[in-house]
Specification:
mainly alpha
């Protein structure tokens, strides 16, 4: 696995585990509020082939309230 692929996969896994932790009774939600944005910002560019070629930040459905 390429280094970027491994970093991406590890960070996505950590975000998923953090989401599961946040749903547990007694979870430290202050911890979740601090760590989750930090993890999300640290995501590297997705490895090539992760998304279809026609998938981009400007493509997709129009959401309510969008111009």
């Amino acid at each position: 696995m390429c280094p970027d692929c491994e970093d991406f996969a590890r960070t996505v896994l950590l975000l998923g585990q953090l989401a599961l932790y946040a749903d547990m009774a007694g979870a430290d939600l202050d911890f979740v509020d601090v760590v989750s944005p930090a993890l999300a910002v640290s995501l590297p560019e997705p490895p090539p082939g992760t998304f279809p070629d026609d998938c981009g930040p400007d493509s997709g459905p129009t959401y309510p309230g969008d111009a």
